[in-house]
């Protein structure tokens, strides 16, 4: 199993999802993925890319999806059978987490991999709102023609 997470991916006692899964004894983590700002938020400056690295505690590869690539490569996809995605998002178009999820889902479909997406409530607590993206204006911060960043 692999995990795609960010700094808000925590348990109710504020343990990061990677640490909680690794210590559960119920799963074998083989890799992790980090979106913009990194798996643990080590790159908080805007538009600062993160490199791939080996997790110093758990010894697994951590692949950056905001570094040399934005989409997982076939080699990255070969490191797991199931990907657990734990990305909270506020529904703001400039957040890139939904686009990262979209790219991961597309890669998983091509590779025949299972993806489990945790459904966390929007911490802002409001409904989907906003204008739809104009055709031809798609980018990493707006990958689909829908209100805000919701897909």
Description:
- The protein is α/β, with parallel strands linked by helices.
- It is built from three helices and six strands.
- The protein has helices at residues 17-24, 74-77, 97-111, and strands at 2-5, 31-34, 53-54, 61-64, 82-86, 114-117.
- It is globular and about 45 Å long.
Shape: globular
Terminal Cα span = 24 Å
Number of helices: 3
Strand share of the residues?
A: 15-25%
Number of strands: 6
Q: Would you tell me the overall average pLDDT?
A: 86
* Sequence stretches where pLDDT stays below 50 over 5 or more residues: none
Order of helices and strands: EHEEEHEHE
Structural class: alpha/beta
Radius of gyration: 15 Å
Biggest β-sheet strands, sense, barrel: 6 strands, mixed
Describe the strand arrangement of the main beta sheet, using strand numbers. Answer: 3-4-2-1-5-6
**In terms of quaternary structure, what is this?**
single chain
Helical content (DSSP H or I, runs of 4+): 10-25%
Quick structural summary:
The chain has helices at 17-24, 74-77, 97-111; strands spanning 2-5, 31-34, 53-54, 61-64, 82-86, 114-117. The chain is α/β, with parallel strands linked by helices and 151 residues long.
